[in-house]
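Lab notebook, bench 4. We co-purified these components, and the gel suggests they stay together. Before we commit to crystallization screens, I want a quick structural picture of the whole thing.
Request: model the full complex, all chains together.
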Amino acid sequence: MLRQRLDRLSLGPTLGVGALLLLLGFLAVYPLSMLFYGSLHSTPPGMAGVFNLDGYAKIFSAHEATVLANTVVISLIKTVIALLVAVLLAWIIARTDTPWRGTLEVLITLPFFIPPIVTAMSWGMLGNPQVGLINQAWKAMTGATASPINVYSYAGIIWHMLQYSTPFLFLFIVDIFRAMDPSLEEASRMSGAARLRTFRSITLILMLPALTSSFILSFVRGIESFESALFFGSPVGITVITTEIYNSINHRQAPDYQYATALSFSILGLMFLLVICQWLILRGRTFTTVTGKGYTPTVMQLGPWRWVTFAFCLLFFFVTVVLPVGQLIIGSFFRYLGFYSAEMLTLDHYRSVFGNSEFWRGFRNTMLLGLLGATATMVLGSIVAYVSARTTWRGRRLIDAIAWLPWMMPGMVLGIGFLWAFAMLPHAIPIYGTVWALLLAYVALGTPVSVRVMNGAYAQLSFDLEECSRVHGATWFQTMWRILVALAWPSFAVGWILTFFGIMRELSASVLLYSVGSEVLSVVLLKLWTNGAAEQVSVIGLMMMLLVVVFRALQLRFLNRQIGVV
Amino acid sequence: MFNVKIAGALLGIIAAAMAVAMPAQAQNAADWEKVVAAAKKEGKVVVYSGAAPASLKKAVEMFEKSTGITVEILIGRGAEIRERVRTERSFGRNIGDVLVNGLSTAIGQMNAGDTQPHGYLPNAGKLVPPFTTAPFNNGDMILPVYATSWAIAVNTNLVKPGEEPKSWHDLLDPKWKGKIIVDNPLSNGGGQATFAIFLEKFGREFIEKMKAQQLTFSDQYTIGQQRLARGEFAIYAPFIVSETYNLKGLPVKGIVPIEGKTYSSQMIGMLAGAPHPNAAHVFINYIFGDEAQASFADLGYTSPTGRVSTTITEDLKPLMYGKLFDIITEDRLSKAVPILESIFK
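Here is the predicted assembly.
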């Protein structure tokens, strides 16, 4: 009742939806429509050619069927494992009395923020079958002659992807666990249900929107994952959709954009079916766990088992961070990664990076774009999620769907879409060739994550909180600020960090849109990488990780003060 | 009267704009001074480059110092530079002045109309064979900056001196089965160019025998040579000889096969609609000057003007200046690629 009145009182739903549609249309639909044109036209925009379906026709071949099967199976296995581990880790951190949870939380999320090429280099050294350190150690310990690990395989690709997926999913899930009113679980326990049954029938069910959202986000991201397959699949002939697209753009005499975009749109169609499935699964259910009734977030007393959960978290950190990053830290002090002898000890890589004016310029630009981009993205994501989750405005589903679109298109293809779209704008609109092009692309690329994060947060907030605020005389803005913003703030902060570091790592669009003077860190990394300076790339990767530790520690300390539950 | 004034003003503006936008086309040495003066007035040149950034660094610094013209370099991978240039030209947003890209990509760009004639270059006469003819010399459109040559590299811990391959055919020796990493023959680049030459010179059977050696592919030469250096593989081919400098102290040795090294070149040209055509003109000319060419030679590249490095050590001269085998051209590559795909895919 009040909800409907709220909707009527808000600042013109039609106007609001219209403005959002315009903005999202420009950020997502416009570049995608350029790509769609590219998929149907024999030449890219701006060139004479004919409309045909040649790009789509090439998709129907035995080779493509293998590529599609590879991609789906790899992503599915990766997502299932990552989700299971992430739920377990999130539960341990948010709902148990495991020691040093605050510290563990920062450590668990670290792998997500390390540039994938850096960890790929490291795992190449650790897990290659010929001279990989892990295999060498195994052979030395057991006397075996065969190598148990080969990262250049399907398992290697999945393993490398897991290191990014698990912390990504953990970040999504942990705050949902934390914000959940334990009274429902307590009621279950008091009614005689065992812990496992309570977890299965209460906790998991309440988390269904967050879990299905996370699953789909992660599955889709798995399909679009590139670096793992490039490093560990391509050398042994394993091709996935993104490496196929990459090859068709970068490895042919003339880039085949029609095929690349047609392939991307076919995948987009498949992914959209997935999203529809999620809507069907969740339709008509409510998942409110934060209500106006007071509750104290409680943690489960695990007794001596808390050391087991502690060890599990530590093991995850050791395998995903200490092993690969340790290798890089050590390697960064030697002239070449992987060659450890006294005469090769050097600080040159650090001197080169810190003395490189391009690095500092890239760092400054990235910080600026990261701060502005992440903030703008989260504000936009919060608004879109609010309209989608908490209003009955006409057009809200469309807005939600449009906000998803950039997530479903592989980054390297979307980068081309932005290039075409911004270049085609009237010259009076000064976007192309300026820093605005980068900023707008970053906002478009980050919006799907920000909307998912905020949707998950809003879905858990009861409408009675807003109603209560309004009944007590608060204005709409006061209600938004004091209730929604205040309660959804932890998720906002997580989304901001995800978006910020997403911007920091983004390369596909950056390399096509940056202009001289607006180089960003990822372009500097590419420059160093193509110069063969892998050691300097590692140094920058380590600096980025250090930045994450600082950001996450500050964020958690702030949240701790705000809600006192970390 | 009013309209005449406006028309006059407009004509004036157009004439001034044309004077700025059109290069002062020098046809001889006497005109060259005018080009240089106009270039200095333009003040900067924007280079779109798909080449390894470090390769141009020293030449750019020396150019800036000697002319006072600022060089802004926008880097990207070959295909990214190609699409960016095409898009900007298609929508009238020309930002770049000079193109630097790999041979086959640059020729593709030239044929697509991405470049324009650069005009008279005082230093162009310094080019020496085989760089004076096609595919390197394309009239006054694009020219070779420096050539990259490819040989065979071995891990000296795994391959003893007596066992070293001496010919490209030695790669077919069964003892190297599973021990060779190659640049991906299905990707545009050194691996594909070299395998296309093998196909032409040694026949399809050679390629099929190579496949039977259970090759591992590398899509990035830096990764290929790192894996060789670490001892994951005994042989890496084709190996960019200039990379020898980046692998100093590691157990890697480059070997020139008796047939010679395969090679290709980075090309340079003036972009169509360049906003700073005179600065671009002067920059392109500078690239063929002795200073710039010496900087390329010092990095281990083959200078198309025949400059040799003064810093190179005697032991590396056979590798750096060894016999050249063949280069692949765009049309020959187009014929070879489908066959390579049918064998390797």
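Chain B touches chain A through 58 residues (CB under 8 Å). Worth comparing against the SEC data before the next meeting. The mean pLDDT of chain B is 89.
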